[in-house]
Design goal:
263 residues; mainly alpha; Glycerol uptake facilitator protein; 65% helix
């Protein structure tokens, strides 16, 4: 595999994390350091991640999601000989992206006690009085990650389907829109990783930089990492079974979509 190809993958994932984790840092740190009561805005984060995905695909045209990369290898689009190098490049890009976010927000992060702005996690749910009533379980988070990754994979494949050729050039923005709707509609229980590199790469950097609790328990491994790797290949099979208008692997080899996902 040519070094230029790996650099494109690394750079694409770097851009994804710089912008995606950057919007989280911007939203979380500003109100927190100002002493405001509200320190979290889900809609802002969902829109930020959506445009981060679009920008990553538009600027670099490279893969940025190991789960999608694996699914494309299973489908015969990505050569198996390239699978491991591409996935490693995606993780390296994600780690470097988290490092860049840390440099950009270092003073704020230190002042706020190095909060977790890097990773997804189980969401809280609230009682009628507005107080937290608990967190979603690993099982529930895994189900939502499976559903979200499935929908994302279908969107990636649909943009390369010949019947949708009119929107093929807008692929990065279409995938970004899918990320947005997944975040708004299914993001609560797990934070919608949908992308093993997006979560594990920054998580490793967060551990090095001093953020606490990032690897407590097994949550970090199952919903954000293992489930997308399982879901994406299954989604590819289901797309061919129910939706594809042609022999997908041959069509994708001719005009592959490289925008990847969030995601």
């Amino acid at each position: 595999m040519k070094p230029k190809e790996l650099l494109a993958v690394t750079f694409g994932t770097f851009v994804l994390i710089v912008l995606g984790d950057g919007v989280v840092a911007n939203v979380v740190l500003g109100p927190r350091l100002a002493g405001a009561v509200a320190s979290y805005n889900w809609n802002t984060i969902a829109f930020g991640w959506a445009f981060a995905v679009a920008a990553s695909g538009l600027i670099s045209g490279a893969d940025n999601n190991p789960a999608v990369t694996l699914a494309m290898a299973v489908r015969g689009v990505t050569p198996w000989s390239k699978l491991l190098p591409i996935i490693l490049a995606e993780f390296v890009g994600a780690f470097l992206g988290a490092f860049a976010v840390y440099l950009a927000y270092r003073e704020g992060l230190v002042a706020a006690g190095l909060p977790n702005i890097y990773t997804t996690g189980p969401g809280a749910f609230y009682g009628p009085d507005g107080a937290s009533a608990g967190q979603y379980s690993i099982l529930t988070a895994s189900i939502t990650e499976f559903l979200g990754t499935t929908i994302l994979m279908w969107g990636v494949l649909a943009t390369s389907d010949r019947r949708n050729s009119a929107m093929s050039k807008a692929g990065p923005f279409v995938v970004g829109g899918i990320i947005l709707v997944i975040g708004l509609c299914l993001g609560g229980p797990s934070g919608y990783s949908l992308n093993p590199a997006r979560d594990l790469g920054p998580r490793l950097f967060g551990l090095i930089s001093g953020t606490q609790g990032l690897f407590d328990g097994l949550y970090w491994l199952i919903p954000p990492v293992l489930i997308p790797f399982i879901s994406a290949p299954i989604a590819g099979y289901l797309y061919d079974l129910f939706f594809a208008s042609e022999a997908q692997p041959e069509a994708l080899k001719a005009a592959p979509l490289k925008s990847g996902a969030a995601d």
